[in-house]
Amino acid sequence: MAETIFSKIIRGEIPCHKVYEDAHVLSFLDVFPLSRGHTLVIPKQEVATVDQLSDEAAAAIGRALPRICRAVLMASGATAYNILQNNGAGAHQAVFHVHFHIIPKYDTGEGLGIVWKPGKLDGAAGAKLAGEIAKAI
After folding, report:
1. Angstrom distance (rounded) from CA 73 to CA 37
2. pLDDT tens for residues 4-44?
3. Can you give the pLDDT at residue 117?
4. In this structure, what are the phi and psi dihedrals at residue 42, rounded to the nearest 5 degrees?
5. Alpha-carbon distance 70 to 92, whole Å?
6. DSSP state, 91?
7. Listing from the earlier edge strand, what are the strands of the sheet with 100-105?
8. What span, in angstroms and rounded, lies between the C-alpha atoms of 44 and 58?
9. For the chain, what are the domain ranges?
10. What is the pTM of this model?
11. Spans of the chain below 50 pLDDT
């Protein structure tokens, strides 16, 4: 994997406003926040997408993410938030190191804006796809 800005942050070569760190996870404020309290949570394992994470790194993110969300809510005063995580350029990933955005949402509208255009799942096609995904697991 190519080195990213997060590699340098993990090594301490670039400073950050750290909010949490353990052996597997680092969390810090986003320098281009969408709202007050916008926080990034990254694994120290340097991989581009979630599907490449080791079970250990994924479990560490899973343990840390809820704790950090609670802290962001408490410190920011927000009562709602989005968690955003993109995988691949086609999904709008800009830094190719796994990262989760915790983005507080405020009554002022500050935060993440989403346009959701749902389709409709066909029953037979859904059953076939679900079976294929389950088999791949």
Report:
1. 8
2. 999 999 999 999 999 999 999 999 999 999 999 999 999 99
3. 87
4. -130, 145
5. 26
6. G
7. 18-21, 25-29, 39-43, 100-105, 80-84
8. 11
9. 5-136
10. 0.92
11. none
3-state secondary structure of 9: helix
5-136 maps to which CATH number? 3.30.428.10
Length of the chain: 137
Q: Is 109 left (phi over 0), alpha (psi -120 to 50) or beta?
A: left
Contact 34, 110 (CB under 8 A): yes
Q: Distance between CA 78 and CA 97 in Å, rounded?
A: 27
As a whole number of angstroms, the distance between CA 137 and CA 133 comes to 6
> Distance between alpha carbon 65 and the CA centroid of its chain, in Å?
9
Q: What are phi and psi of 81, to 5 degrees?
A: -160, 160
Q: Which residues form the catalytic set?
A: 99
Residue 24: the pLDDT is 98
Strands, E assignment, 1-135: 18-21, 25-29, 39-43, 80-84, 100-105
